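[SOLVED] Need 3D model of a two-part complex

Original post:
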Amino acid sequence: MIEPVRPIAIEDVEQARQRIAATVLRTPLVRFDERIWLKLENLQPTNAYKIRGATNAVACLSDAERAKGVWTISAGNAGQGVAYAARQFGIPATVVAIETAPQTKLDRMRALGATIVPVSYQDAWKAAESHSFEGLEGTFVHPFDNHDFIAGHGTMGLEILEDLPEVRTVIAAIGGGGLITGVGSALKARNPDVKVIGAEPETAAPYAYSLEQGSPRWFPDWQASFVDGAGGKSVTERMWQRMRPVTDGTITVTLDEVRDAMRLIAEKSRTIAEGAGALALAAALTGEAGEGPIVCVVSGGNIDLSKFAELVVS
Amino acid sequence: MIEPVRPIAIEDVEQARQRIAATVLRTPLVRFDERIWLKLENLQPTNAYKIRGATNAVACLSDAERAKGVWTISAGNAGQGVAYAARQFGIPATVVAIETAPQTKLDRMRALGATIVPVSYQDAWKAAESHSFEGLEGTFVHPFDNHDFIAGHGTMGLEILEDLPEVRTVIAAIGGGGLITGVGSALKARNPDVKVIGAEPETAAPYAYSLEQGSPRWFPDWQASFVDGAGGKSVTERMWQRMRPVTDGTITVTLDEVRDAMRLIAEKSRTIAEGAGALALAAALTGEAGEGPIVCVVSGGNIDLSKFAELVVS
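Solution:
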């Protein structure tokens, strides 16, 4: 039984903030240029924003649910988030992980004590759509289609408004859609004038395609790329219901633009962003996002250092 | 006329904090492991802690002094700090810069509108010792032997105590000695039990040598290295007076240890530290710093990305 989709209320986000305060970092918002700011979620203990939602979701489980342990599906960052949260509660975690995830993500999930079940991208996406994977015990914590998980991400929106009350536009990468739903819900509740824009790579832009077609779709020409932490195969019906009311559009960027944005983030903020983490800045730099101040969520930094060097130093 | 050395009072630091609040980032303290935390000064707008002291020092000048413009001496980070502060006040800045500074540091000083006067390391150090350089107009802002500059750095100490009240040891790199004097003064005023330890590279460890000899000395075998932002040629008599009362010792590390620490900072915090920025962690990891929690100041991140990749990815 999957619970029906309901809007993320601002109270859900405020309560999440208290639940996760001792675990997550209140990340800094740093200036990129005259118009653009970066919300550095790559500094989180797991080096990705997913720890916000994961911590809230695990905290919201009943004692009986938690006692069974938890499992999730992940391209790497949600798995680290859930494993980290599970460790805080002293319960076991299993991650159905995309087998092509960067080594750094797989290593870190294991280091956090998670059991890894490697699967193909296709099978992981199928499990995320169906909310099920055969043979696993424990309580399922969906990495994006989960109310509490999304409410946890919304805490970022509260922080952005505190640090930059004059913000006009916030851009966040779309993978499953949980990040933008959370952030968008918090922002729109507090200030409906803030524009909330998605960012997708040209190789995996199902939300842009779905908006074009007017309904949730599979992306026809999906390709794997170094932007492994975002870019789903499809927008699910449920995530469509979640995202649509709290977003104002999406920008599709090329892989070269993502790579440039990774370099610029390194040069300016001296932090390491993974491909997905640089999507929002790449989108801002297209000029299509409208007026500033623009906040770009740097969603994560989990990329193998050698791959980072290869992409950024040339 | 150089004003006599006097202790940095906690009130000086508290006032500095107010003066610089709108300009500097309140940097996050992130966990490195069970025992060690990193204070990420590499996230500052100029990607180094020097902006704290520079902003306070320029703000403390009289209107008449500021009207003449300012100049400083720098291996790169102080110059960026002073140039940034000068730009905030709309006044010109000149930097007597070590000509072998990384390109990224020189470029950024120019981008901030500073006029660069390139000199040898030897000549820059002489100017720092004598507080003079012929032919320059404007008000001199010494990059470390300056009360207000040091008080500005002290603000970091207040933040560390707020974020981790149970801290036992704080480690900071020693270049000129301003950073450790500022941080040490604030920490000792608030909690005399906190240990304050310096970190120097084996190629430039004049404080370790001076402590051994019992008086301020020139370091006999100084060598240039990628740790360009720390490691002076000598401890001056005045900096000896400043540092001694607020420090509990220093740890000397090898260049290989610094390089390892740079890699570990990148892996764990996903930030880019320059050599000097990794000194404190390298010192902590020797095990000589005593008990935790230990805070390591990651003082800066201004290193050419290609050099970073060369040192860290292998």
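Edit: Residues 147-163 of chain B form the longest helix (17 residues).
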